[in-house]
Amino acid sequence: MLDDTDQEHYKKLSNRVSLICSEAHKRNVPVFIDAEESWMQNAADDLLLELMRQYNSDEVVVYNTIQAYRWDRLAYLKKLNHKAKKEGFKLGFKLVRGAYMEKERERAKRLNYNSPICLTKSATDDQFNNCLKYILKNLDHAAVFLGTHNEYSTHLALKLMHQLKIDIDDPRIWFGQLFGMSDHISYNLAKANYNIAKYLPYGPVRDVMPYLIRRAEENTSVAGQTNRELSLIKQETKRRKS
After folding, report:
1. 234 burial class (0-12, 13-18, 19+ CB within 10 angstroms)?
2. Do residues 12 and 1 lie in contact, with contact meaning Cβ atoms separated by under 8 Å?
3. pLDDT in tens, 79-100
4. Of 209, 207, 81, 183, whose CA–CA distance to 134 is shortest?
5. Any domain includes 25
6. Are the C-beta atoms of residues 87 and 71 closer than 8 Å to each other?
7. Measured between alpha carbons, how far is 107 from 50 in angstroms, rounded to an integer?
8. Domains held by the chain: number
9. Is residue 55 within 8 Å of 22, Cβ to Cβ?
């Protein structure tokens, strides 16, 4: 339960985000809202649902982030999809694996509640891929930005697009990787004319460095992929010198 001060802060936050989305809607520019820790995400989900209702009637402008390391996200997607169909608005999602695993588990243990995080990396991968499948099969009133450095998930997306007869440059589907990470994925997608973005974190060093470290750790958890990427970088460096 929020006290008066918290309610005032939330009201100011809601107004600021609404103003941003209103201006984005006027200019037809998408807005991506990153996910937070689970104990704050419900409030973000509620706010962004209202903004999707308001601004996603024709085109997808407002995007919420789905963290697939949470075991409840596929059920959340399905619930939201039924609501959007019934009420006649479109959904925007940035699909990622997640960034606060240790913090989430430690807090759940300390406060004695069930952890919202999948038990294993394999379960997280399954959740990501199942969310991906569900979104692509319901693309008639949705759009998705796939924020992933995972080769298998990227190949799965391409395979599903082909099976579902979705154009490779369909504006409802974008891929994205961090600047300097998984460039072999980004450049090959771009060469094949898929929609691709490289994104660059910006902000104080104390905030940006932990974010980048989490992304690097996420990459190293993908079996064999990091060594392969280093090998590709060495080959490209050698090619440019020759």
Report:
1. exposed
2. no
3. 999 999 999 999 999 999 987 8
4. 81
5. no
6. no
7. 29
8. 1
9. yes
